[in-house]
Specification:
Layout lengths: L1 E7 L2 E7 L4 E8 L4 E10 L4 E3 L6 E6 L3 H7 L8 E6 L3 E2 L4 E4 L6 E3 L1 E7 L15 E8 L2 E2 H7 L3 H4 L5 E8 L8 E6 L2 E7 L7 H11 L7 E3 L7 E3 L4 E6 L3 E9 L1
Parallel strand pairs: 6-17, 8-14, 9-20
Antiparallel strand pairs: 1-2, 1-5, 1-14, 2-3, 3-4, 6-7, 10-13, 10-18, 11-12, 11-17, 12-14, 15-16, 15-19, 19-20
Length: 254
């Protein structure tokens, strides 16, 4: 099932996207489990897609692809490396990525994002799947020069617009067998498969939930494969993941 969040006639709603691009509007809370499909429909062409969830935080995983570790000539981590993006960084499908005036080196990072369904704290690996609503595309936008200057990642990863998510949440997906790509102005820059993940989704949920409570709508970004690189104002960057569609954004000067 493809769950979309959208704006239509000055109202924000959730809906289920069908193969014919018709959206059935949902009544109730998709995260509380108390919802149903209504008899109201709207066409995908009539709406503005929004980021498919509104996370209180995005928990991001660094160095989680074997090919990216080889590319960087780095030793594989013994446990997941986590950092956070704030909710204020959220961006939408088709939204503008602002190139900060204080940066000269803005990078893309295509990622598979896990959308959390219900509050999760100290979850064992074997039960991690019970807390997943589904998956979506993400782009971990990074001001690389600021990241390197600071020696830690918060400022370089946290500017407004640095967390594009979308275009929808797919509830039925094997997250460990899908192709992930990134195109810059139509040119392929990243191409891998989630079989290359070092730590799999259940391990990540279990690990993160030992540290912090995950809330409904929070996302875990599972890491980026090899091929990360720079963008310029005017560029269009697109993340494509099998079964999850395409997330496109344009870079502008902030």
């Amino acid at each position: 099932m493809k769950i979309v969040r959208f704006a239509f006639e000055n109202k924000q709603s959730y809906g289920v996207l069908a193969a014919d691009n018709q959206i059935t509007i949902i009544d109730g809370d998709i995260f509380g489990g108390h919802y149903k499909e209504s008899d109201r429909k709207v066409s995908l062409e009539q709406v503005s897609l929004l980021a498919p969830c509104q996370p209180s935080k995005a928990v991001c995983i660094g160095l989680n692809y074997h090919d990216h570790a080889r590319e960087m000539n780095l030793k594989l981590p013994e446990e997941p490396l986590i950092f956070l993006k704030p909710s204020s960084a959220l961006n939408h499908p088709g939204g503008k990525i602002e190139f900060p005036p204080i940066s000269n080196n803005l990078h893309f990072e295509a990622e598979l994002a896990v959308v959390i369904k219900s509050q999760a704290r100290k979850i064992p690996v074997e039960h991690a799947g019970d807390y997943v609503l589904g998956y979506t595309c993400a782009n971990d936008i990074t001001a690389r020069d600021i990241q390197m200057h600071d020696g830690q990642w918060t400022r370089g990863k946290s500017f407004d617009t640095f967390l594009p998510l979308g275009p929808w949440i797919e509830t039925q997906l094997n997250p460990h067998t899908v192709n992930i790509k990134l195109l810059l102005n139509g040119e392929l820059k990243q191409s891998s498969n989630t079989t290359n993940l070092i730590f799999k989704v259940p391990e990540l949920i279990a690990f993160v939930s030992q540290v912090m409570t995950l809330y409904p709508g929070d996302v875990i970004l599972t890491g980026t494969p090899s091929g990360v690189g720079p963008m310029q104002a005017g560029d269009t960057v697109t993340v494509e993941i099998d079964g999850l569609g395409a997330l496109s954004n344009t870079v502008i000067r902030g």
